[in-house]
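Q: Given only this backbone (530 positions), what sequence would you predict?
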């Protein structure tokens, strides 16, 4: 197995630098970013930055080193490989590109559970990226470092361009991960989300080996200590719905589920701000007004410097990065107990799925492996309009192992915990995208509240003939028509056609996992197992 001497690597980077700023505070990093012309203050004091051509992740430019540790474990159908010698050259060349520059080093932690923790050092040429990751990961003064915390080094060189012939990359942009040495190189892109997702990818590879289920989800905890998980891709409402003053937030995006409970991997939030409203999302909106928050690709009024969250001229993937501690209700220590409720969020662009449905354990694993939603424009490069997509485990680009590994772990955790799973559609009703309308946030919040409180535990339901899940017939405060999407369409024949098409897409997608679907996934969907 390959290994890196992290201290030596970091020292080599620092010795060649013109200067190094270590663990600089928010005021210092904000001032440095403005001095470099890389950002400006909003009217409320947040730091506004833009990322140029890269307004989302570049999943096709992500590579994993193929070596003795990864060769037989990584899901290579979903991951591009880079040879060890090519990665070593990439490390050397990226490090040389930073020589003579002012560098910013942040020593942080990933993992609120001391028994499942990494000490992450990010070295970058960009002050605002240092501020970004300082907001997103856990600061050592917030949590003690675990005795056995693994070492991770991220070399962030956005100004460096990879050479495909020399480095084995697809182009000049690269996100390369060495799982054996826990070293990451990011080059050729200013999009800050690549930093946090690279750390998540490392965790997702190692966690199952330590009997921990890694999850792309948010989590909160109720008054009675009842932990809830919220799975969902970008734009499905994961951040919005988990931010609830009555339920302290454990974390926004990335978690582990161990035998003793749930723990956050991060110390901050990377929230979408497109069409952000102080009324619908007051906690997130307030966080965008604080000094030290990083607003990414949010357009400012040129005169007042006030953010216009409705302006998507740069991208719909506008973001705010801020530490968890600024939120009014946060779970102490970033940990929670064994989950009682598991919620799968989807933004159904077909307008077919009901706004809420109860899932059996088998159905929960099926939908976890399917990871269906509508990919929101701007979240990834090249996506200009919403489209149906399937992303295994609601985060396939960050899941290096085969989805069955994570699916089997989820099935085991659900069986042991007795947690109830729900599917909640935050997408369209009355027709597909462009015809119907988005389900309003107030209705979604009401349905979620009913699920979390146990109000729906004994509710009368109907079984969906295509998908098999149980749909409540009535929920207080919700128009019964909304609960039956077929009735919301002007043409029920058109609904049936769209529903059949979506069921076919589920079947086609699931065949790549082999004969692992349960018959309880649904009368039609079960055919995917055959």
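A: Predicted residues:
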């Amino acid at each position: 197995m390959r290994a890196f001497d992290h201290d030596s690597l970091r020292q080599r980077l620092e010795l060649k630098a013109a200067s190094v700023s270590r663990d600089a505070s928010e005021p210092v990093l904000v001032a440095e970013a403005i001095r470099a012309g890389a950002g400006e203050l909003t009217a409320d004091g947040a730091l506004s930055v833009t990322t140029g051509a890269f307004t989302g992740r570049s999943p096709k430019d992500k590579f994993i080193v193929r070596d003795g540790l990864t060769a037989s474990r990584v899901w290579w159908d979903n991951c591009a490989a880079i040879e060890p010698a090519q990665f070593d050259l990439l490390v050397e060349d990226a490090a040389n590109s930073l020589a003579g520059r002012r560098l910013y080093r942040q020593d942080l932690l990933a993992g609120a559970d001391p028994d499942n923790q990494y000490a992450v050092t990010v070295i970058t040429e960009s002050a605002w990226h240092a501020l970004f990751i300082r907001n997103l990961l856990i600061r050592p003064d917030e949590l003690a470092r675990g005795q056995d915390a693994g070492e991770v080094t991220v070399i962030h060189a956005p100004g460096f361009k990879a050479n495909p012939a020399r480095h084995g990359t697809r182009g000049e942009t690269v996100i390369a991960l060495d799982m054996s040495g826990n070293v990451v190189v990011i080059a050729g892109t200013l999009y800050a989300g690549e930093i946090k997702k690279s750390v998540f990818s490392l965790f997702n590879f190692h966690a199952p080996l330590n009997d921990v289920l890694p999850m792309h989800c948010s989590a909160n905890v109720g008054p009675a200590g009842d932990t809830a998980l919220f799975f969902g891709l970008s734009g499905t409402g994961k951040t919005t719905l988990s931010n609830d003053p009555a339920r302290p937030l454990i974390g926004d995006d990335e978690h582990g589920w161990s035998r003793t409970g749930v723990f956050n991997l991060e110390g901050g939030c990377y929230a979408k701000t497109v069409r952000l409203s102080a009324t619908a999302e007051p906690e997130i909106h307030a966080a965008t007004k604080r000094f030290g928050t990083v607003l990414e690709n949010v357009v400012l009024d040129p005169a007042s410097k006030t953010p216009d969250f409705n302006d998507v001229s740069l991208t719909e993937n506008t973001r705010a990065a801020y530490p968890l501690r600024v939120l009014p209700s946060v779970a102490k220590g970033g940990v929670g107990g064994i989950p009682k409720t598991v919620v799968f969020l989807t933004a159904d662009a077909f307008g077919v799925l009901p706004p809420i449905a109860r899932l059996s354990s088998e159905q929960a694993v099926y939908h976890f492996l399917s990871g269906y939603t509508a990919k929101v424009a701007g979240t990834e490069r090249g996506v200009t309009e919403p489209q149906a997509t399937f992303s295994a485990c609601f985060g396939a680009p960050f899941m290096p192992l085969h989805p069955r590994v994570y699916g089997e772990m989820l099935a085991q955790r659900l069986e042991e915990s007795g947690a109830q799973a729900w599917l909640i559609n935050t997408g369209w009703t009355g027709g597909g995208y462009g015809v119907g309308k988005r389900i309003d946030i107030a209705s979604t919040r009401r349905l979620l509240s009913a699920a979390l409180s146990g109000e729906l535990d004994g509710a009368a339901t109907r079984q969906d003939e295509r998908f098999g899940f149980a749909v409540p017939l009535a929920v207080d405060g919700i128009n019964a028509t909304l609960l039956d999407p077929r009735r919301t369409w002007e043409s029920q024949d058109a609904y049936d056609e769209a529903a059949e098409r979506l069921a076919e897409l589920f079947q086609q997608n699931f065949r790549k996992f082999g004969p692992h679907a349960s018959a309880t996934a649904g009368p039609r969907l079960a055919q995917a197992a055959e």
